[in-house]
Write the structure tokens for this entry.
Amino acid sequence: MKQQSILMFLIVALFVVIPCASESAFAVSVVPQQQDIVNQVSQTTYSYYLDDVLYTHSGDNRQWEPEHDLAQSNIYGEFESFGLDTSLHPFEYQGSTYYNVVGAHYGSVRPDDIYILGAHYDSVNGPGADDNASGVAGIMEAARVLSQYEFEATLIFIGFDREEQGLIGSGAYARDHRDDDILGMISMDMISYNGSGSDTARIYGRDSSASLKESLADAISLYGNGLSSVDSGVIGLSDHEPFQEEGFQACLLIEYDVWNNPYYHRSNDSVDMQNYIDYAFATNIVRSAVGFLATSAVPIFAAPVAQIPEPATLLLLSLGSLFLLRKRRP
């Protein structure tokens, strides 16, 4: 009779206690390694942002036309949907107020350590599919992926405005945040034209940004799906430059064939041009940037689960041992 009572108690415990133990174990989500994070980058999603969100078709114009503000609003909405702390950073240009779109994903260990991925969303004389909706789609896809994970350091994604008028938006942001601890800034500007088929990206930056450039080149080799990179020296024609002026390490990540792009600053810089936008090439550049950020900001890895038994498991083991001891008695 006593053995039967103990057996019944164990059966009840199996139905009542074990579900509690399982719920506790599965409450911990293990953060994937960097490669797994990079593998979340999707060409389909990137293409959606470039084709359907940023007004990149023939007849669109993000210079001064309505598409400029509509694209700004869409970037803001996407950042917000990712759960980023999203805001508009205002600045003045020729008597009018313009806005950078900022999305912050705060670090849980070193929130004051900051990495920035930026791209300008204004265009010249047309839809600006490559220059620079391609880069903006890239920061949106990077933000979508990286916002799903927890990192030690803070990641900030910025759509800069009025780059084409002389780095106005990025200059304002860099000045306003000169006291921040910005450990690295990457400007993605024109990343979708691969006319020569070289599958190569250029990296530009000052000697003072050498370690950042080297780390980005390593990320391209590791995560770029066969991309190569070349250090093209120094150039100050994109949104990385104001950050270098403030003493931060910053660099430009750009397509190799930028100087041979036949549609640069023309009305036919459009996704509608056949055999023009190389979506796979651009996605691989985004993968590289995500790999760099996922490594530099340091993902939070959960401790392995169930190496030490849960208290409920210990209770069941003790009860089982008691039952077996009693059963063996003559």
